[in-house]
Amino acid sequence: MHRRDFLAMSASLTFLPRAARAGEATPYTPGAAEAAMDAGKIVFLDFWASWCSTCAAQHRVLAALKAENPAYEQNIVFFVVDWDEYGKGDLSKSLNIPRRSTLVAMKGLQELGRIVAGTSTEDIRALLDLALAAA
Question: 17 by DSSP, 3-state: which?
Answer without folding.
Answer: coil
